[in-house]
Amino acid sequence: MRLVKFLYPLLVVLLAVFAIAPLEYPGAFQSHTGLLAYYNLIDLDQNPAQFFAWAPVVGRAFDLFRTEGALPYLLAETFHLLGFSYLTAIKLVYALAWIASGLAMYALARRWLSENGALLAATIYVYLPFHIATVYVRGAFAEAVAWAVLPLVLLVATRPSTVDRRPSAVFSLLPFTLLFLIQPGFAILFTLVALAIAIALRGRDALGGLRSSVGGLALGAILYLPTILRHGAQITRDGFSANFILPFQLFAASWGFGESTGSFLDQFPFQLGVAPLGLAIIALALAWRGDARAPELRRVVAVFLGAAIVLAILTFDIASPLWRGLGLFVAHPWQLLAFVGLALAIVAGAAIEFDARFARPAMLAFFVALPVVASYGYLAPRFLAANPTRPPIAIFGDNEIALLDYRIVGPLRHGATIRLHLTWQALRPVNHDYTVFVHGVHENGGYYAQADSKPQGGASPTLTWKTGQVISDTHTIQIDVDGPREDYHIEFGLYVAETGRRALTTTGADSVSVPRPGDPEPVITEQVRPK
């Protein structure tokens, strides 16, 4: 009996293997956040004194509600302290969050569904296309962890109020606190959704969930207070992008890696998935057929289906007036699709509850395999040969462009031809057409070499860079043969040719000087000799 009890959770874990398998690829996967998760972890690791007041603000401005919480990074730091690299530590958190999301959904679905139905709901939740896009397209590190906590929050919110009299009631605060420490604004919005669902299901009996939510969020706010005191309770003006989605995009079959722009030609995948939608339709049809004998389950299906529809409508332009207030908590209206997916998973899981034939092993295997097969083609992220081990060299503009790495090829002495290899990353849409300047400077302050060109010789203007994109760029200079023999360094940076105005770094400097102390020495063997 004990083995049977753990059989279904074990199946949830095994079924998640296909989702986390791409994380085993070497290097980091390309996403809208690029390598920021790794650089934030490096920043945390190198600043342990900031432990209780730290926030992941590398390449980003701090925002009271929209900034990611520290909790996912603290978990990754634990893995790093155990000996894993920064890259592997972040990947491990992604993998565990994916597995935990399936187990949490299974626990939630078991409140209303059989073991078979809960297994199906968990599989749907793991393989929701928007879940996959959250990780492998957006690279939203904190939100990926939040997917594992959302079902637990709803599990607490919908429990009977009598549970509050038990000693375990204290632990009911934990899911709300964890979600707040993962992403504060996300936690506030979902708590409202969870309470609305709890009231629809239990009416006045939802009082226990209300107390837990208030207490849990309050505890999270208290733990968040040192971070607020350090960074300030600021809300960035441009923190919300009102790029609403179009209804057809929820049912589109295309999969892209582009950004969300709110246009008809949007390249970002918003689809809810053919398997979740198809199973939800089957559940709806079977629930209201004449011989259905599960009124309580019909009520659950109706409530969660209604929640999914209302939340989906909130992502459309018709709901824009509401986002004057809701926009304080998240950066995009379509982030609510995570809540839509959770509700849809419960409805889809109920599809096999209304017909005993669907519970047979062969039919159950078919239904569980369906969402895996339907989303399998989306599990193909793009990867970079990158393994960050130190902070970014510099961040230019208003958190526009990060310089991730550089390499000097050639000796720093007079008459030498030198190549400067730069690795850039766009942190947000770049609104300036930057030119790269490279100077050979002697320690006496004299300039003995100069070259100005756009990235990749003009083949990759900064205006065309996509958020998170990593660009390799090479510039060549020749130091004047009549200059001093040795003791040179290279200064470089970005400027707008039309105005001559240079982009400042986060330290206020208008250029970067290399090599820096502790950086690799220039590579001599690959020297480019003058013609």
Give me the side-by-side strand order of the main sheet.
3-4-5-8
What number of structural domains do the residues give?
Answer: 2
Quaternary state of this entry equals single chain
Task: Give me the secondary-structure category.
Answer: alpha+beta
The proportion of residues forming helix, as a percent range, comes to 40-55%
| Main pleated sheet | 4 strands, antiparallel
Q: What's the order of the H and E elements?
A: HHEHHHHHHHHHHHHHHEEEEEEEEE
β-strand number: 10
Low-confidence stretches: 527-531
Strand content: 5-15%
In short:
The strands form 3 sheets. The protein has a 4-stranded antiparallel beta sheet with strand order 3-4-5-8, with no helix packed on it. It has a 4-stranded antiparallel beta sheet with strand order 7-6-9-10, with no helix packed on it. The chain has 16 helices and 10 strands.
What is the topological layout?
Blueprint lengths: L1 H14 L1 H4 L7 E2 L6 H11 L24 H11 L4 H24 L5 H12 L2 H8 L4 H17 L16 H9 L1 H19 L4 H25 L42 H14 L7 H19 L9 H4 L10 H13 L11 H15 L7 E2 L9 E3 L4 E9 L7 E10 L7 E9 L4 E7 L16 E9 L9 E9 L15 E3 L17
Antiparallel strand pairs: 1-2, 3-4, 4-5, 5-8, 6-7, 6-9, 9-10
Helix pairs in contact: 1-6, 3-4, 4-5, 5-6, 5-8, 6-15, 6-16, 8-9, 8-10, 9-10, 9-11, 10-11, 10-13, 12-13, 12-15, 13-15
